[in-house]
Amino acid sequence: MQILVTGGAGYIGSHTCFALLEAGHRVIVLDNLCNSKVSTLDKIKLLTNKEIIFYPLDVTNESSVDSIFLNHRIDAVFHFAGLKSVSESVKKPLEYYYNNVVSTLILAKACQKYNINKFIFSSSATVYGRNKVPFLEDSELMSATTPYGETKVISERILTDVAKANSEFSVSLLRYFNPVGAHKSGLIGEAPNNIPNNLMPYITQVAKGKMRKLKIFGDDYPTVDGSGVRDYIHVVDLALGHVAALNNLLPGVNVYNLGTGKGTSVFQLVKAFEEVNNVHVPYEITNRRSGDIAECYADVSKAEKELKWKAKLGIIDICRDAWRFEKKYEV
Ligand code: NAD
Ligand code: UFG
Predict the structure, then answer these.
(1) Cα(235) to centroid of ligand 1, in Å?
(2) 25 CA from centroid of ligand 2 (Å)
(3) Long-range Cβ contacts of 243-248 (<8 Å, 24+ apart)
(4) pLDDT higher at 189 or 290
(5) For the whole model, what pTM was predicted?
(6) Closest ligand (CA of 191)
(7) All domains of the chain, ordered by start, with CATH?
């Protein structure tokens, strides 16, 4: 298939482009590079020995997006483009609502106009808000805790309503848990343009000496050791989950948790990183981060059963691969 990948130069998008090319698909990437670099696409070409068509454009620009659909035969859309900092979304809600919701509207509209009926959307476990763990796909989405989370809830609703109105439209809402790790080549990985917000890139940058200390946001949660618990999924497994979602796309709305089903605490992740890589990660305990929940992990039985997909890589692979990428990575 010829697949339009928005945000394909970013962290999850780049690993998914790799997986799609390896699975024999062709990809067209749209990315405004606000949080990525075009050199990532060159690295994917090097790894796969395949071409990628790239347009450096903003998905909120309707006429630019329209021209891509007009000029290429597209079989499916993978929509990764989005702003993803939870804390920034609290400070800049309008920017987040505009970028993340308008992009979804424009793509859905183009799909309708050009009769494209396969759509895979990057959603997030954050849509579960303060539900009880493990999170199940059919939980009621009571309320996300931040504007970022709301943009995912709203985008899910838009795509669900499009599917209700058009019985031929197939959409997969993939709710990622915590994507971490990097491709084993060490060539592609998580390389945010600014100071990272997420735990793993912070750990790798502290280990490399780019930052002095990791701040651990709270050690008084009701968890195994007081620090926050998350379901860390290797980005290579996550990318393969997208290929499985495409292969099993049914008309209507398909919702899947993409996680491992296992929770790991911040202290456990830091310790594993130090042991696997034989490096030191200095840290200090600070206050809880606003909006954070104590525990977040998936029930993954639906994806395992219906997509016949399961995460294969564990915390050791994650720590080793994230560090390999960080060591090789030059800004
Ligand atoms: P990323 O920032 O690495 O990638 C997003 C890409 O989209 C970047 O390359 C950026 O330049 C591009 N982009 C942003 N807005 C754009 C626009 N208007 N037009 C064109 N390009 C635009 O982030 P990621 O971690 O790869 O996340 C991909 C998707 O998955 C996002 O939608 C994110 O919200 C979602 N998600 C991420 C996580 C996570 O922890 N990484 C968890 C759950 C969901
Ligand atoms: N944490 C720290 N110090 C840091 C960064 C994070 O202690 O410098 C802690 C957090 O408090 C949390 C855990 O590490 O307990 C993971 O935090 P991340 O920021 O890495 O990830 P979140 O779980 O907060 O959020 C991530 C993505 C969201 C996505 C969500 C889905 O950033 O986009 O996972 O589960 F919605």
Answers:
(1) 13
(2) 32
(3) 243/16, 243/19, 243/20, 243/23, 244/303, 244/307, 244/308, 244/309, 245/120, 245/172, 245/174, 245/307, 245/309, 246/1, 246/3, 246/20, 246/76, 246/118, 246/120, 246/172, 247/307, 248/306, 248/307, 248/308
(4) 189
(5) 0.98
(6) 1
(7) 2-182+232-259 (3.40.50.720)
